[in-house]
Amino acid sequence: MGSVGIIANPASGKDIRRLVAYGSVFSNREKVNIVKRVLLGLDSTGVEDVFLMPDYYGIGQRALENLNLSLNVSFLDMVPEGTQDDSTRAAGILSEMDTGCVVVLGGDGTNRVVAKTSGETPLLSIATGTNNVFSCMVEGTLAGIAAGVVALNKANLDQVVSQMPRLEIWRDSELLDIALVDVVVSTSSFIASRAIWDVSTIKEIFLTRSDPGNIGISSLGGALCRLPLNARQGLYIKVGPGEKKVRAPIAPGLIPWVPIESFRLFEVDEELSLPVGPTVIALDGEREISQGKEERLTIKLNIHGPYVVDLHEALRRASEKCLFIINQV
After folding, report:
1. Which of 116, 201, 204, 255 could crosslink 186 through cysteines, CB 3.0-4.6 Å?
2. Domain residue extents for the chain
3. Preceding omega of 252 cis (within 30 degrees of 0)
4. What residues have CB less than 8 Å from 160, skipping those under 6 apart?
5. Who contacts 251 (Cβ-Cβ below 8 Å, separation ≥6)?
6. Nearest Cα to 263, choosing from 287, 285, 286, 245?
7. 156 with 149: CB under 8 angstroms?
8. pLDDT for the residue 99
């Protein structure tokens, strides 16, 4: 009867951008309430099994308190380490189990690590991070209903699930990591607090999408050149003295002027060389890779990234099929 996984990251929505900007705090208590609503939404669709990622806060256990559900809920057989690897491992397990859909609570960083191992499993993301470009602000109840519709194949998946692009960082023939929204090359010496917020350290930016309606580094691209998701192109920006200067919200409440030396579109599978180090590379807003002095890295746009559910389209298609109606005798 279909199965759904839930990955709720207890660390999302709590980074330094609450100190240097005005990012909202998503408490774990609120994530518990969201998961409760997701479970109730799933229960209404007839999904049979739900698998929760265990975590150090116990979001899943707390969400189950005082709920009377007809579906079977269990926890993945894994010991949480309290790092982002928990989400990556959970996504890999759920993919191997051929789960019908995975609901993810987190921001762009959480979805990035989930997408590393999610394979062809459709993701439905609920924004609980700082920068929420990949994920959307949606009500947990609706997310649960839509995930159930997808898991039970009650809507044509080709109509409600799309494959998103990703950026890949390569060292020769080795894939080092991926990003779903942006890659930023910074002169910062340390990974430290991870989040990118000081534009004076930024040298280069690579984007899968750019829209003035986004928050975060990708908003810089939106001020220069709108790039819809179906463009099958990426956007490269070189930061530095030039003819243009743009102002954009790189974090909640943080709207600096940024000098632009140049920018251009690049194509699928085109190899772009990163400047030879030492630099730090941030992926979807978080510093992840320290590049050595002589290390040579390249970046590519791959259109075969994670599969993502269009919540509103899934619910619309299900409604058209009268899946929410019972004719009374």
Report:
1. 201
2. 3-164+306-320, 166-302
3. no
4. 149, 150, 309, 310, 313, 314, 317
5. 17, 20, 21, 23, 130, 131, 195, 197, 215, 216
6. 245
7. no
8. 96
Query: Does domain 166-302 bear CATH number 2.60.200.30?
Result: yes
Q: 267 exposed, middle or buried (CB, 10 Å; 0-12, 13-18, 19+)?
A: exposed
Domain formed by 3-164+306-320, architecture: 3-Layer(aba) Sandwich (3.40)
If pLDDT is split at 50, 70 and 90, which confidence band does 19 have? very low
Residue 147: closest CA among 33, 43, 42: 42
pLDDT value of residue 214: 86
Question: Which one-letter amino acid corresponds to residue 35?
Answer: V
Grade residue 329 by pLDDT with cuts at 50, 70 and 90.
low
Instruction: Fill in the amino acid letter for 203.
Output: K
pLDDT digits (tens, 9 = 90+) for 145-196: 999 999 998 667 888 999 999 999 999 899 999 999 999 998 876 544 556 6
> Which residue is it, tokens 């699930």?
161
Model pLDDT, residue 193:
52
- pLDDT given for residue 215 in this prediction: 84
**How far apart are the C-alpha atoms of 125 and 105, rounded to whole Å?**
6
* Residues 139, 146: Cα–Cα separation, whole Å: 11
